[in-house]
Each structure stands twice: as structure tokens, then as C-alpha cells.
Amino acid sequence: MFRRFVVLIVSTVVVCAAADNNVKVVEEIAAKVNGDIITRGELEKKRQEIEAEAKRQGLTGARLQDAVKEAHADVLSKEIDTLLLVQKGKDLNISVDADVTRRLAEIQVQQKISDPDKFQQFIREQTGMTFEDFKQQMKNEMLTQRVIGQEVMRNITVPEAELQKYYDEHKSEFMRKEAQVFLSQIVISTEGKSPEQVAAAEKKAKDLVARANKGEKFSDLARDNSDDVETAKNGGYVGSMPKGMMDKAIEEIVFKAKKGFVSDPFKRAQGFVILKVEDRFEAGQASFDEVKNELQDRLTQPKANAKVRTYLTQLREDAFLEIKDGYVDSGAAPGKDTRWKDVAALKPQTTTKEEVAARRKKHILWVIPAGTVKSTKPEGKTAPAPAATPAPAAATTDKTPDATPAKTPDPAAVPEKK
């Protein structure tokens, strides 16, 4: 009796080496990271996403091929980065569950979809992902950003002499054509709420204003209470707003207010909005003190890129990491042996799709796309996630991968037993 080997080759159609119904399609494991796995199917899916995104950006011909080739070389490295950061977040007991819940609720309200089933269908249509995959990718995105901020960004500083030198050499870049105000906000949503709930939201907003005026940190109040998740996670910070970008009634107030002013709640379409004036500048040449925080952020970024890479290298050095022959980790820690050791003792080297899903759910380690870096904020605010934040790794989906028979047995492809 001969054995049937099933080796995964990712495409769009399933072709098995055997027609036997007892043989299951398997996912080839490309790497093991502290007990979690990255599969060949995930890597291929990510490559397809990279190519699709490059095409959406208008790249064609040789430029498209070059961009895709460069990105493909780093796919495994970035998936390993993501897994290590998510695992570190769990070790640090960082929780983003509340942020995920608020963000999903916000999206549902924005899309005006009250029915849960229709909302999940909307997510599938817009992202090509199951709702659970989408939710987990959002969770991991937030988690990795928090880890980078906590473990790397808060330890980066730029000496004032270096800031001053840069300012003196680039003064023309800091000319303001018009007045600007820097704002933070707290949003108490009223969308889809009953009159009684709207009244309760207004009371909550007024209470928050009173607490801020009594000395509580506005950033803490925003982080704990604002229904706008994107700004809440940064302490409510919105950024600079030139004239003409806001409601005239609001502009009349904030452009005349002093730094530190906290407004009464404004009733807007989405709910009650509380604004804090973080800073305000007139048109003309910006002084060094006025742009000091912007300078800090601008000069921090190159340092952050290197620091993030160093941090990820250290995580690799401390990790149990094995990579199958034929796969390359472009971010490998120098000197660390990640070769696939003693293949016979590490069975199985392939795994069923069901096992992949079960393991990912158990460890809550779905792969994510990276978050978008937002504008930075005045002094005293949390630093943004660096541009070097690891890119996404693709999640195993319900789409069945293509499989072709191996001509010779692959030591990393263990047959499924009947």
C-alpha cells in the first residue's frame, strides 16, 4: 500500500494528489514562532494583497514588478514581526478589547447599518474577510501599535541643540500662511439613540467638561470616554486646524480662546463634542518654541525606524523561531540559528486548515494590516506609531488553496493518516 502525500501549492483551485475522501487538504508550515505558526497559504495571500494594492496605486509594467518583488522579499519577515509584537502585547497584559468594540460600533453607526448580520455582510463585501478575521486584525493592529509606543517610542528623545540646528536650517518650512489652532476632542455619540439616551449623553458631556475644568487631564478623559476611537486612543488629539475647516460658530470660539481652554459641549450631527485648545498660532514665521514639538516628531522618526528594528531583532533573539528551508527571514537576528531542526522529531510539518484556524483562535494571533500613521501632536502628547510599524501578515481564509502532488516526498510534508 502506497502513501499519498499532499503538498500545498497556493493558487485558487484545489487539486489533491489523491481522490480519497479521507485525505485532507493541509497547510504547509513555513515558520514556527514561539509555538505559533505561519503557513505558506498566509504568505501567498499576503503577496496577492501586496500586488493588488500596488495596482490600485496605479503601478504598471516594470514599476509594478519591481515594487511587488521588493515587497515579496519581506513578507515572511513582516509576518514574524507581527506575531512577535502580538505575543509581546499579551505578555505585557495590554488589552485593546474595549477599543475594538468601540471602533466596530463606530463603523456600524457611520454606515447606518443597525442589523448585525447585514453589518457583518458589509464587512465581508468591503474587505474580503470574515467578520471575525476583520475584528481580530483590528485588535492586532491596535495591539502592535501600543507595544511599539510603550516599549520603543517613549524612550526616544532628540536633544534640543539638534532641534534648534534643524530649525535654523529649515526656517522657510515653518512659515504659516494663516492662523492655526491645535485641538483635542471628546465625542459622546448620540447616533441611533432615543431621546432619553440623548439627554443622558448631554449630561455625561457636561460632567466631563466640569471634570476637565477641575483639573483632570483632558487626554485621560478622552481616552476613557470618547466614542471617536481614532482620536481617543491618542488622548483625543485632533491636530492643527486652519481657519475655514470648522463650523464658523466653533471657529469664533476656539480661535479667540487661550491655550488650555475647554469648551462647553457642542451639539453636532454625530453627538456632543467637547474641544480643548492645545495651542494656537498666528500667521507668519513660526518661532522655534511654536514648532518645537513638530521638530521633535520630525527628527524622532528616523531614530524610531532604527529603534523599532533593533527591538524586533531582540524579540527574535529571545524567541523560539524555526524557519523551513526555502523561506527567508529578511529581518533575521544576526547569528541566531533558525534552521528547521530534526524534522522527524517535529511532526507534523503540515497541518490541516481546521487546525490552523483552531490554533489561531486559541492564541488570538490573527495576522493584521498595519495601522496608518496619523499626524503628530503638541508637546506632552503620546508619540505616534513609527513608519516602520510592521506591515500586515495575512490571515488564513476560508478560500480553499490549490494543492498539487509532490513528485518526491518533501520531508516537511507529512501525510495525513486515514
From TrEMBL:
Annotated spans, Disordered: 371-418
Pfam families documented for this protein: Rotamase_3 (PF13616), SurA_N_3 (PF13624)
Entry keyword Isomerase: yes
Compositionally biased spans, kind Low complexity: 381-418
Entry annotated with the keyword RNA-binding: no
Ranges for domain PpiC: 178-279
InterPro entries listed in its UniProt record: OMP_Chaperone_SurA, PPIase_dom_sf, PPIase_PpiC, PPIase_PpiC_CS, Trigger_fact/SurA_dom_sf
Top-rank taxon: Bacteria
Annotated GO MF terms: peptidyl-prolyl cis-trans isomerase activity
Keywords recorded for this protein, A-Z: Isomerase, Rotamase, Signal
Protein name: PpiC-type peptidyl-prolyl cis-trans isomerase
Organism: Solibacter usitatus (strain Ellin6076)
